[in-house]
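Re: the 135-residue chain
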Amino acid sequence: MARLLVWGAELVVRLSWWEKAAGLHGDVRVPLSAVRQVMVEPDWWRALRGVRRRGLWVPGGLCIGVRGHHDGKDFVAVRPRRPVVCVALRPSSPFGLLAVTTPDPEATAARLRRLAPDIESTRWRQAIPVPPDTA
């Protein structure tokens, strides 16, 4: 199972070897200063935005890899029927959101909120803005 770790000044999504293979991606590293919000999403499917770009998606089974949407891309390592830690990142980051199922989501989120230097106070994930119609 994926883990969210803080190593020095970085937030790391640590993947197992099979998650790396399934997600077609290695461990994800972002500066801890890029963390904007940390939330726990009780409904796992709400953490998935956009469509699969790279990785594995088994409906009702597993979603791991990069998901794309009109506002950018997210990295997800989500298992169904479990709460998900959602880490919203600042625009300078390669991803807009990291969504990871962890063994203890509340404790993980609390630790990240404590360690992130400049985090916003809201605990609710903001929706992606809808692009205007071009028709």
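The first helix runs from residue 17 to 23.
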